[in-house]
Amino acid sequence: MRSLLAQCAVGLVSAALVASQVQAGVLYRAPTHFISRRQEAPPAGASPSPSPSSQQYVLENTYIVRLRAEPNTPESRNEQSAFKRALDAQKLEWKHRYTYDTIINGLSISLESAYVDVITALPMVRQVWPLVITSRAKKHTTPTKSDKKLQVAHNATGVDKAHQRGLNGNSVRVGIIDSGIDYRHPALGGCFGKSNGCRVAYGYDFVGDSYDGSKSQAVEDGDPLDTCNGHGTHVAGIVGANDSVLKGVAPAVTFGAYRVFSCNGVVEDDIILAAIERAVRDGMDIINMSMGSGSAWAESPISIAANLVTKRGIIMVAAIGNDGDKGLWETSSPGIGNGVISTASVDNYEYRAFGFSVKGSEDSYDYWRQDFAPMNVSINAVLVAAANDSAPTDLGCGPLSPHVKGNVVLLQRGKCSFTDKALNAQKAGAIGVLIYNNEFGITNPLVDDVDIPYAGVSQANGQKLVELLESRWLSQVLPSPLTKRSYPSLDIVFSQTARQYANPSGGAVSLFSSWGLGADLELKPDVGAPGGLVLSTYPINLGSYVTLSGTSMASPYIAGAAALILQNSRTYNAKQSDGHVKTSGLGHALGITKQPFASVAKQGAGLINVIDAISLDYHASPSRLELNMTTSDAPIQRVVRIFNQGKFNVKVKLQHRAALAVNGYTDDYELLEKPVSKMHSAKVRFSTTAVIIAPGRFADVTVTFQRPSNLPSEEIWLYSGYILVDVHKGFLSGKLIADLSIPYAGISGDYRSLPILTPPGYGLPLIRAGTSNSIDQPLVGVRLEHATKVMRIIATYANGTVIGAIPGGQNRHVGRNDNSENNEIRFLPWDGQVLPGPGRTFPDGQLAQLAKAPSYPVRLPDGYYRVHVSVLRLLGTEANADDYDTWFSPLIALNATGTLKPLGAVVPTPTSTTPSQPSATSAFSSVPPPQSSSAFPSVPPPPSNPPAFTSVPPPSR
User: Fold this and answer.
1) Strand ranges of the sheet holding 775-782, from the earlier edge strand across to the other edge
2) pTM
3) Domain PA, which positions (predicted)?
4) Looking at per-residue confidence, does 800 or 651 come out higher?
């Protein structure tokens, strides 16, 4: 058994794998939300989909401010006082929210966004981030009971063997930052507090039951009880439930419950940061965060905080995200953080479901309902198809034939939403509807406002039912015209008792699990764990147990595994800054002989094998090899250090195992929602393929990589694989005593040339009329095809001469847009104010040269202006003008007085630098705007005295 590598047979890979943040201002960004999501028409996959994307928005006029001094020092306290005095001296109206002095030195405040650049320029300020708030749909679940067969996941991960050794997480503290924990649950100890010996011994409620982030205020108290949400209780049960029904990974850990999600399921970054600091002060050894925020950077506030926590020797575990249907580069925060163990989801091997039988068939058929309840129809029913063919996906998207009346109708998923299909069946008089998947695996329909029972079945079961119906159609003599009785039907019997079913995709990477890598080509995710179809605890008043899916469920599995490793040997991490648990245990992989391996960008090191991680006296460093980007066949070298911490000599053998390469783009360099996977192998050579290592010593082996030779040079491919390290006892290749695996990943092609702004021809960026507070304002609309480290939106004169930045338009570390609701386009309103910069003709891309001195917004006089958008390309250098995509808007007329005269002639727009597609070998060419106003004789030159603009003073206190 190789310790940590989830991989799939060819069939599973093809089925399962063909599948924002801003630092200032008010641009929309992806939020923090639970990573167990449901959606109405989710991507097909091997397990029921997690819950839907949350509603998200930036909480305007609210910021986290990080100061420069180290936390918990006299200097930090002096800086915080000085910062507050500076705000008062500027006569700014502001409100204090939270103070931080454990992990970072800083505070969160409310302040009008127009003045964020003022505080950013203060000498004690290191970073400023806007706050994001998220709300999500309330979960609808029904209780379920289980038996010990659901512990099959522990058999696959080696947890069962760890339990047999007596390891249970005793004396290890695990903090759960989530929706609280129902500590009344017998499996979680039944009580709360340190004095009573309760398992949930630490905790705090930061929000209360009613908090929604805007209409109601947070109500804090010392009781983190979860009775209305359930997410945190489910997460806690995976880590350490212990009763006759369910045994978690580490059933004797001590919990800290830090409630940041209310019954409404909302949270802001500053609340999460406060919870992290409290968990650290409470002495947690491990902190689990089953949450995320779309495509993100390691420089987001929560990612930075998580990284700082790991430097104190505390293990941070987070979910990678549930955006597997959005293509590459979707690693979320805090999982993207340096040192954070980012967790992918692997489908569970068994699940519990209700089923039905078909008269005349020996096969058993199971179905899945979101509420885990049996179909509320007659136990004996009649199943019919919507038509006399193979049930194409468009059936059910319109009116159905009258023959479905009084029957259960079978429909294939696709073309329209689950709700549309179920409603059309209901209108036709059906008494129930079964929707079968149009791709491999189970589907889990979520519908709204439908009265008849509905359920989802797997593609395989659906196809078997269609074949049975077709065989009966072909075997009967049909009247003409067809009548209701002419349509074939199946007599079915619904069972009212749930039972265990084998998951056909057990062990495969869950389709919903997000793709890496990070935008800077960080190798993420780090490791995988069971996350699809996981049974765990739930609030007692909501049924006590429930099965959920998501990387939210995989993350606590890894947290529990880390607890077992820490209990076994505290020297394996607890106080080491680089996370020794990850490198000596969680960084290895479980070897299975099936080929091909799923991409490292989908599974990291793969499915964890806990018993191997615990048992190892041998480990390799680093735990991952990041090969970055290459446009040539030049060799790339990395050094692997192999340690022998055992008691005898060992012989180590090294070999290479390739994983599937991935192309995530169309020919026009648009991101595919389902990346294409093919077997393209890197060439790998070792300085030696075998080495003897004495006890207490180590050996260095140089590994040389060359990108796959058969990849088209004009395409961008992500190639990956594993360096396998087999450890044998003695000098003569004796008994195999350990097998390690180190994942690697790299990019073939010019990743730097990928477009950040949507290419011309798609109508973006754009200027749209908008209304705010009854005052008409234009909206600047921008869509980012990839994440960017620098995004600035400035105002210029018609000829391109810089006036200054639009308030809220200077942003750093911005995540990419996708096609999900509320994240297709970013909009920034502009009311005609600017933060003045040097009045000069502006060389393309040189936005880093804008004045850094604090300045108040000024209102432009009536006239004609342009908006200029500039974004830094991937791996670009901020000071290099050639590393930016840019766009100039058409002319915008500001006419507050109503006296602006129309232009006498058409004024050409300065040239933007966003090509239709990137070059395969170089960055986009830069075309500078005109260098003088004389190029536009019909437009008057810029005024010589910009300070004459109407000044907007700060609000009085």
Assistant:
1) 766-772, 775-782, 826-829
2) 0.84
3) 383-465
4) 651
Enumerate the β-bridge partners of residue 892: 865
Q: Is 231 a catalytic residue?
A: yes
Q: What local confidence, expressed as pLDDT, does residue 218 receive?
A: 87
Q: Say how far apart CA 48 and CA 59 lie, in whole Å.
A: 32
Looking at 101, 117, 178, 269, which residue is catalytic? 178
Residue 591: its pLDDT value, please?
Answer: 33
Is there a catalytic annotation at residue 552?
yes
Residue 546 has pLDDT above 60, yes or no: yes
- CATH superfamily, domain 618-735+743-749, is Immunoglobulins (2.60.40.10)
Of 375, 372, 373, residue with least CA distance to 547: 372
CB 814 within 8 A of CB 27: yes
> Is the separation of the CB atoms in 537 and 545 below 8 Å?
yes
Q: What is the pLDDT of residue 107?
A: 96
Contact criterion met (CB below 8 Å) for 942 and 839:
yes
pLDDT in tens, 437-467: 888 777 878 787 888 989 899 888 988 888 8
Domain boundaries, the chain: 1-349+503-616, 358-494, 618-735+743-749, 754-951
**Half-sphere exposure (CA, 13 Å, Cβ side) for 733?**
6
- The token pair at 671 is 């991101």
Inter-residue contact 745 to 603 (CB < 8 Å): no
DSSP 156-183: HHTHHHHHHTT---TT-EEEEEES-B-T
Collapsed DSSP state (helix, strand, coil) of residue 324: helix
Cα dihedral: 621, 626, 631, 636 (round 10) = -10
Can you tell me the mean pLDDT for 892-897?
A: 85
Catalytic annotation on 178?
A: yes
Q: How far is it, in rounded angstroms, from Cα 485 to Cα 546?
A: 41
Q: Which SS3 state, helix, strand or coil, does residue 591 take?
A: coil
Number of Cβ within 10 Å of residue 360's Cβ equals 10
What pLDDT is recorded for position 807?
83
Whether domain 358-494 has CATH 3.50.30.30: the reply is yes
Residues in the chain: 957
Contact (CB, 8 A) for 606 and 588: no
Percent of the chain with pLDDT strictly greater than 70:
77
Q: Are 743 and 591 in contact (CB under 8 A)?
A: no
Does 675 sit behind a cis peptide bond, omega within 30 degrees of 0 on the bond before it? no
The string of DSSP letters for 649-689 reads -EEEEEEEEEB-EEEEE-TT-PEEEEEEEE----EEEES-S
Catalytic residue among 231, 619, 656, 786: 231
Please tell me the distance from the alpha carbon of residue 187 to that of residue 248, in angstroms, as a whole number.
9
**CATH number of 1-349+503-616: 1.10.3720.10, 3.40.50.200, 3.40.640.10, 3.30.565.10?**
3.40.50.200
Answer whether 348's CB lies under 8 Å from 503's CB.
yes
At residue 532, does pLDDT exceed 90? no
| Per-residue pLDDT reduced to its tens digit, 211-238 | 877 656 889 999 999 999 999 999 999 9
Closest CA to 491 of 472, 510, 505: 472
- Strand-pair partners of 492: 358, 381
Is residue 16 classed as helix, strand or coil in its secondary structure?
helix
> Smallest Cα–Cα separation from 408: which of 356, 459, 448?
356
Higher pLDDT, 843 or 690: 690
Mean pLDDT, rounded, of the chain: 79
Residues 648/729, Cβ–Cβ less than 8 Å = yes
Average pLDDT over residues 588-599: 54
Of the candidates 544, 552, 677, 889, the residue annotated as catalytic is 552
Distance between CA 191 and CA 184 in Å, rounded?
Answer: 5
The two three-digit tokens of residue 757, written as one number: 């702004």
Q: Where are the alpha helices (DSSP H) in 282-337?
A: 301-310
Q: CA separation (Å) from 638 to 275, 684, 694, 708, 804?
A: 38, 11, 23, 17, 45
Whether residue 176 is predicted with pLDDT greater than 70 in this model: the reply is yes
